[in-house]
Amino acid sequence: MPRKYTHSEQKTMTTGLTLENFSYFVIFCLTMTFSPGPMTIFLLSLGLKSGLRSAFPAQMGASLAYLISIIIFAVGLSEIIKDYPLLTHTIQLTGISYIIYLAYKQWTSKEIQINIHIDLKNFKDLFSKGMLTGMSNPKTILMFTAVFPQFSAQKEHQMIDISILGITFLILQFASGCSYCYFGQRIKPLLDQPSRQSLLHKTSAVLLLAVAVMLSRSFLA
Question: What angle do CA 32, 160, 162 make, to 5 degrees?
């Protein structure tokens, strides 16, 4: 028979990887991975210059960087804090606050700069640049540290939940990168127009804010 959590337990943990939480997570990941950012613009620039094949090593490097970050920050931190409800509570609030901050940044984002003058030719250079871009983004660290635990259950099923979340994020991130590379010529006119850029940023901001509200509702339930 499934365990029933008390009201006090529910206030210090998320609802677990329910279908509802997983849906919120997918919306969050789609918004994060498909909205313009350092990695997506880098891959778009590579795609515009040389096509999907030349950008593939950079995409592999980025995926490895995200995988390492998930293992270190999401899995490692979750293991450390799982027996400290107050710390878990604090990280949950930090995660919700960070999503609201990302929404604000998206809403106030300005013109996107696309640089097609990238002098990277061999596999090693492209792979290293993709990995460095993924690892050096502070948003990556904070996202895996403060946001991922929002969607996973505590203790019993936490590692399984984070594994599912991690695989989902990697798949969506890879799909985003390939889309920006392959459809670069079609996406570029959209990103070249300030009015369309603004619409894209504001749509992303609204989606992120909706995820933050949903997480707050489940957290305070």
Answer: 25
220 conformational bin, left if phi > 0, alpha if psi -120 to 50, beta if neither: alpha
Query: In this structure, what are the phi and psi dihedrals at residue 80, rounded to the nearest 5 degrees?
Result: -70, -40
Q: What is the largest CA-CA distance in the chain?
A: 61
Distance (Å, whole) CA 189 – CA 187: 6
What pLDDT, in 10s, does the model give residues 56-88?
888 899 899 989 988 887 777 777 776 777 877
Question: What are 136's two structure tokens?
Answer: 């050096």
- Tell me how far CA of residue 96 lies from CA of 80, 153, 194, 211, 219, in angstroms: 20, 16, 29, 9, 10
Tens-digit pLDDT profile for residues 95-114? 788 888 888 888 887 766 66
Contact present, 172 and 29 (Cβ < 8 Å): yes
The C-alpha atoms of residue 42 and residue 164 are separated, in whole angstroms, by 27
The three-state secondary structure class of 155 is helix
Q: pTM of the predicted model, to two decimals?
A: 0.73
